[in-house]
Amino acid sequence: MGKMMIEHGHDEAEARRSVSFARTKSNTSSRCIQYSFPQQLENDSESESVSESGDIGDRALSSNMSSRSGRLLFSVENTAESGLVVPIEEEGAWPHDPTATDNVSPVTKSGDGMKNCEREVPRWLDYISSLLFLAVFGILGVLLRYVLEILFGPGNVGATSDQNYMYLDLPSNMVGSFLMGWFGVVFKGDISKLSAQLAIGLTTGFLGSLTTFSGWNQKMLELSVEGRWVFAILGILIGLFLVAYSIIFGIETAKGLQWVLKRTGNNRKSTFECSWKVNSPKRHLVVSVILLLTLASLWTICIALEIRKFKKGNSESRLWLACLVGPLGVWIRWFLARLNGRGLGKSGLLKWVPFGTLIANVSAASVMAGLATLKKVVSTKDCDTFVGGVQFGLLGCLSTVSTFVAEFHAMRESKHPWRAYAYALATILPSFIFGTLLYSVPVWIKGF
User: Fold this and answer.
1) Could you report the per-residue pLDDT of 124-159, keeping only the tens digit for each?
2) Cβ contacts of residue 251 below 8 Å, gap of 6+?
3) pLDDT digits (tens, 9 = 90+) for 234-252
4) Which residues pair with 349 in a beta bridge?
5) Share of the chain above pLDDT 90, in %
6) Stretch 253-279: mean pLDDT, rounded?
7) What's the half-sphere exposure (Cβ side, CA atoms, 13 Å) at 316?
8) What contacts 385, CB < 8 A, 6 or more positions away?
9) What are the two backbone dihedrals, phi and then psi, of residue 349, each rounded to the nearest 5 degrees?
10) CB-based contact 439:225 (threshold 8 Å)
């Protein structure tokens, strides 16, 4: 009997030590997770943010709808930033914390306070409005790109030309990058408060179409074909330098203006936002109808002018065709932008790479090189007009420098600035190589 009691006491002691060891191990694991998990989340969050700094495509509508519905979006990034540690219970039960409801209540109250100024907008109306904004602003971007090309070209100012590293699209790329610092970085949040679709139209539509990467790459290919390799290299390096500092200058000037506006008109800001905010189905519908009529008018004018000018084969005939096909390039680029910040595979490898923008730029540059070869092979006025319009409109709007340079700038300002130059190299080098294979090699072989 005594031996059995001793063994029973020994078993109880072993059980207590096992439970104590398990709890100690669990606490140690929790502390390890507490210290290591936020660091990993911080790195992942930074990689995702730099990749999404330029554009995230139609995912912006989903996030905007979630914020309008008043739901509490509890993300691990916010948890890490606020210092909260999510407990991992041994038995799977979550203890009731009376302070938890107190922590959430301010968010709920703020959501209730916005009900007077916001109503739920159907998802289909969000999409239609966004597509119309992109189309209208995309056409405006094409028109301004053409004006800047003519203004700074050989016939007027003479600052740019096809025979120089100061290529024809450089002014539009610089202006678009400068304005990206305004509307895509500093004032984008304020514009999104009025209308998320307006912000999309200005950045992805207008600035994305005002700037073009495929045109830039094609001009460098044409210089290299003629044996002007030094000019081609200078065009790439100087072009990257100028657009990179254009967005910096845009951000700095926009911050100065923002500071002035905050000091002068801060009291009327909330009233202005509530009065002009496009936040109800009725307002969305009115804006969509106006944009639809505007787009129909622009396309009607472009069709009429294209019919009159097509046979002449001049730059104007190329322009009107570009305005007709340009919105398609904007829409494709916008849908590709949803890949930004997602990474590769289920694990999200290389989240810092904006694959949507990368695919849009490289593919547009490659197709433009192929069409340039087609122009030389066919060599007719009608083919030159049609291909030129597709190059200037569809491919010019499919590729972008403004979004590219916004992502480049965000990477330079991050903890890993080398990623900016790796991303630039991953965009420029494949585009030039594919362009050489599709355009330069056939020209050298056939002697066009």
Assistant:
1) 888 999 999 999 999 999 999 999 999 999 989 999
2) 181, 182, 185, 186, 409
3) 999 999 999 999 999 999 9
4) 344
5) 57
6) 75
7) 12
8) 310, 313, 317, 318, 321
9) -70, 140
10) yes
Residue tagged 């009025």 (tokens):
194
Any idea what the Cα angle at residue 163 is, between residues 158 and 165, rounded to 5°? 85
Q: Domain segments of the chain: what residues?
A: 121-261+278-444
CA distance 31 to 288: 53
The pLDDT of residue 429 is above 80: yes
- Least trusted range by pLDDT, from 140-144, 162-166, 355-359: 162-166
- Could you tell me the end-to-end alpha-carbon distance of the chain, in angstroms, rounded to an integer? 107
The pLDDT confidence band at residue 264, using thresholds 50, 70 and 90, is confident
Q: Give CA–CA dist 60/251, Å, rounded.
A: 22
Helices (H), ranges, 184-228: 188-194, 196-200, 208-210, 213-225
A 10 A CB-CB count for 287 gives 18
Return phi, psi of residue 280, to 5°. Answer: -135, 155
Q: CA-CA distance, 375 to 383, in Å (whole number)? A: 6
pLDDT of residue 314: 81
H or E, element range at 290: helix 281-309
Task: Give the model's pLDDT for residue 266.
Answer: 60
Entry field: residues in the chain:
448
Of 107, 177, 74, 215, the residue nearest 402 (C-alpha): 177
What's the whole-model pTM score?
Answer: 0.79
The number of CA neighbours under 13 Å toward the Cβ of 314 is: 7
Task: Say how far apart CA 175 and CA 148 lie, in whole Å.
Answer: 9
Alpha-carbon distances of 87 from 73, 82, 101, rounded to whole Å: 19, 15, 17
314 and 382 in contact (C-beta within 8 Å)?
no
For 211, residues 6+ apart whose C-beta sits below 8 A from its C-beta are: 145, 169, 172, 173, 176, 177, 243, 400, 401, 402
Asked if residue 152 lies in contact with residue 159, where contact means CB atoms within 8 angstroms, the answer is yes
Closest residue by Cα to residue 407 from 102, 123, 184, 118: 184
CB-based contacts of 382, cutoff 8 Å, min separation 6: 310, 311, 313
Which of the listed ranges 194-198, 348-352, 438-442 does the model predict with the highest average pLDDT? 438-442
Task: Please name the amino acid found at residue 349.
Answer: L
Q: Could you write out the DSSP letters of every residue in 59-116?
A: HHHHHHHHHHTT-----HHHHHHHT------SSSPPPP-HHHHHHHHHHHHHHHHTTT
